[in-house]
Amino acid sequence: MTDYPTLHMMIEGERVTAGSRRTFDVVNPVSGDTLAELPLADGADLDRALDAAQRGFGRWRYTPAAERARVLHGAAALIRERAEALARTATMEQGKPLAEAKLECMAVAAWFDFAAGECQRLYGRELVRPVGQRSVVRWEPVGPVAAFAPWNFPLANPGRKLGAAVAAGCSIILKSAEETPASALGVLQALYDAGLPSDVAQAVFGVPDEVSRHLLSSSVIRKLSFTGSTMVGKHLAKLAADNMIRTTMELGGHGPVLVFGDADIDKALATAASGKTRNAGQVCVSPTRFIVEENVFERFRDGMAERLAATRVGNGLDKDTQMGPMANARRPDAIGKFVADAKDRGARLATGGERIGNQGFFFKPTVLSEVPLDAEVMNEEPFGPLALVNPYAGEDAMIAEANRLNYGLAAFAWTSDVQRQRRIADQLEAGMVGINTHAIAGPDAPFQGVQWSGHGSEDGPEGVKACMVVKAVHEA
Length: 476
Ligand code: NAD
Prior knowledge:
alpha/beta; Aldehyde Dehydrogenase, Chain A, domain 1; Aldehyde Dehydrogenase, Chain A, domain 2; seven-stranded mixed beta sheet; six-stranded mixed beta sheet; 14 helices
């Protein structure tokens, strides 16, 4: 592939290439072939990035809000201009259809514009005090941020973390996933080209555990922002605790979808089927457990199987493709194991259930039904194109199943009963709830989980404030 960029890290404004460093092979998920070699940081690289981040924070925290906003608006415009090339890079290294990668570019641009507006809205407050005294509560940037972003949204995950830190007045060291480095570098480059000083945001890659241990043991880092699995999130939270580093954790989910007999079933099916195949199911808010009222169960199961079986799976660069390969070799293996385990325990396979071909990482969109609750996939996040459809008798049983797991990221419900919509919104234990919609993310809306799905928000005003601390100043 000739149009895949040459890879490097970005430390103190220098493009750091492999030299004698260890490297990681970035792979095209369509073929399994190597696209390029990525340099991995050693301890000296990370120390250099930490020193620069300290300096970058010293200058950026006092940079006027208008200038921070100018940089973010500028980067948003550049990302829109470069969307075609950025999206192509993302598809080449991650696999998702080009149209989805372009939407990701637009989401990053929209977030940068929103975060730019927030720069001017980081208000504090003044307390009521007797004449001659003054007490103010103000927001300040927390300090240098260490951010770890995964491979499923190779543009948007880095974009969320960079935008929040830059708007708040922090510096940031970003370690995006080694599987999808070029997308992250493209987003960072747009910020530089819009005028961001190179010590304010840097990009390193490495052996994840080495990088996170090194950065989190440094007294420079004041904030950790992680997106990824609950297991890794718990591990990083423990490391962060040693230095009392603040954390934002955007972790796994197990998206319950309650479908009631009074819902618009065709609309629910169309929305849920495209939601399930989006990014080959590798989305933390993907609809996963379909909790269907028994009077519409068969119709819903069969409709879902029919729609998923008709999905056009192929190379994300082909314009007809609706679902690309999975992002890396681990994913089809994991999905295959979930399917085998569920079938062994008595689940019915309604469609799919196997890999496609022996090249790349393709897996058929799959529907399992009547899945026993002790099947692994009913308890662990599948992170793939796998829909689990089970029948339930009535609202209480459906809500109980939705809240059964420790995950609480996104939950969805389909019903035309307005009173029920309100009861359900109250009772679902989740950071985000979609009623008759799966559109739950936007630049102005906080994105977060509860329980094992994490804590702290990204996006929205809350996402910028997550990179800040309050200080109360009292004068007499
Ligand atoms: P993983 O759990 O090892 O890694 C998940 C992410 O965390 C990757 O980006 C990885 O680079 C990073 N990571 C891993 N160990 C780390 C460490 N010690 N320090 C810093 N970063 C570290 O495995 P995976 O195979 O990449 O993904 C598997 C599971 O992760 C999926 O099944 C899914 O549940 C979850 N995941 C969630 C999201 C999300 O958006 N919440 C994104 C990607 C993966």
